[in-house]
Write a structure and sequence with these properties.
122 residues; mainly alpha
């Protein structure tokens, strides 16, 4: 996923409860902003990318195929006044990844997990 960000889009992760801090320099736009917001979507958001509700920490084909622009927007804090450029394209990329994980069982297994590819490479 392209980590270039809109310079006007800040992401504010929760740190110790309600205390929040701003990541990245809004004037220069740092790509670590986008990367830093995916961890909460895996954990705090109860497995946004997982189709297995018993394992919210995994990414799999079902979780990605069930993703919507609205769910991703919420996870990335994209809303009026804090819009993330290219959000629809990012969501579609992740959804297409879910379909690719489904189609390539020989690499990603029946459950369609990207991590299963490591077994093929090692």
């Amino acid at each position: 996923m392209e980590l270039q960000i809109d310079r006007e889009w800040p992401y504010l992760p929760a740190i110790r409860g309600n205390c929040r801090r701003k990541l990245g320099d809004v004037q220069t736009g740092r790509p670590d902003q986008t990367a830093s917001c995916f961890r909460p979507m895996l954990t705090d958001w109860k497995g946004l990318f997982s189709g297995n509700r018993n394992n919210k920490y995994q990414v799999d084909k079902e979780g990605l195929q069930q993703l919507t622009v609205e769910k991703l927007a919420s996870g990335l804090q994209s809303r009026p006044g804090n819009e993330m450029a290219g959000l629809e394209g990012r969501a579609q990329l992740l959804i297409r990844l879910g379909h690719a994980l489904h189609e390539k069982i020989e690499f990603f297994g029946e459950d369609g997990r990207p991590g299963n590819m490591l077994g093929k490479l090692l």
